[in-house]
Amino acid sequence: MSWREIQKQNFTSWPKLAAFLQIEGLQGYAHPHFPLNLPRRLAEKIEKGNPHDPVLRQFLPSLEEAHKTPGFSLDPVGDQGARKSQKLLKKYEGRALLVTTSACAMHCRFCFRQNFDYVSKDFTFDQELKLIGEDPSITEIILSGGDPLSLSNTVLQNLIQHIVAIPHVKRLRFHTRFPIGIPERIDAPLLEILQATRLQPIFVIHCNHPKELDADIFQALRRLQALRIPVLNSAVLLRGVNDTPAILHELFELLSDHGILAYYLNQLDRVQGAAHFEVPQQEGLKLLSELMTSLPGYAVPRYVQEVAGEPYKTPLYL
């Protein structure tokens, strides 16, 4: 079965997911523009009958999202101020980010870009490529979204070929959650595209809880690693999901066991509707301190926060 066919099995209806999970009496919030979207692979990892399961909590639209919380906004990381065109963001020296698509493998309820005004179904990047070509300081392109692996291999190949034609670009970074929900997306045609490019690909996956991982996912990621493509993980610190030393230790040790670098532990981006996920920074610092006593240094992520307008992610030091 192709990854597209697998994606069609995603749960997008709370009543259907509730029946599958044998959960009664819990209402899913009907979000007007950010509906439920959960791959079946992840749904199968949720404990039956447990509405507080840490995987489910990340994806179930909650009535708490309707609360308006001071200090939380629709654009918490300053995407709008960094836009150079409809689909190109430039925040940091040497790097530019292409918002490739609004489509994603799943809808995380804490997504900082859930209110972004995407250019729907427009997969041309002429203006963006022109701007990149005119800025020789840009050596790395970040493909984001949505999720760049939502694009077909044909569209991806065409985009990559155009980036390759810009001589000062050296690296191509993918930010993706696809391998966590639909690892079949790392298919042979995609690997051929990545292997053929002169650019150095880098994959940053997004995994927040060890329950999300399995042997199929690690096997898919090993196909990337076999091509000498670094694989890193960027996690978000989330209340009720991974805000304990034991869970974070298990997550980062498991990733390290499979050669995946624990890149970032992100403080929650304060997007409106996600306040119930926030862990105070002091608690986060205490968790990081405990990780440093129990894990080797390479398995401890950098605890950071993205602050709108700052030229780099802000380290939250001890």
Topology:
Layout: H1 3-7, H2 14-21, H3 40-43, H4 54-59, H5 79-82, E1 88-89, E2 95-99, H6 126-133, E3 140-144, H7 153-164, E4 171-176, H8 178-181, H9 188-196, E5 200-205, H10 215-225, E6 231-236, H11 245-257, E7 261-266, H12 281-294, E8 302-305, E9 314-315
Parallel strand pairs: 2-3, 3-4, 4-5, 5-6, 6-7, 7-8
Antiparallel strand pairs: 1-2, 8-9
Describe this structure in words.
The chain is of the alpha/beta class and 318 residues long. It folds into two domains: 3-66, no CATH class; 79-315, Alpha-Beta Barrel (TIM Barrel). Helices cover 31% and strands 13% of the residues. The chain is built from twelve helices and nine strands. Strand 6, helix 11 (245-257) and strand 7 (261-266) form a beta-alpha-beta unit. It is globular, with a radius of gyration of 19 Å. The mean pLDDT is 95.
What's the quick description here?
The chain contains twelve helices and nine strands. It is an alpha/beta fold and 318 residues long.
Could you estimate the helical fraction of the residues in percent?
25-40%
Quaternary organisation: single chain
Shape from CA axes?
Answer: globular
Rg over CA atoms: 19 Å
SSE succession: HHHHHEEHEHEHHEHEHEHEE
SS class: alpha/beta
The number of strands is 9
Beta fraction of the residues? 5-15%
Number of domains: 2
CATH superfamily of the largest domain: Aldolase class I
Question: Which consecutive residue ranges, at least 5 long each, have pLDDT under 50?
Answer: none
> Mind telling me the CATH class of the largest domain?
Alpha Beta
> At CATH's second level, what is the architecture of the largest domain?
Alpha-Beta Barrel
CATH fold-level topology of the largest domain: TIM Barrel
Mean pLDDT: 95
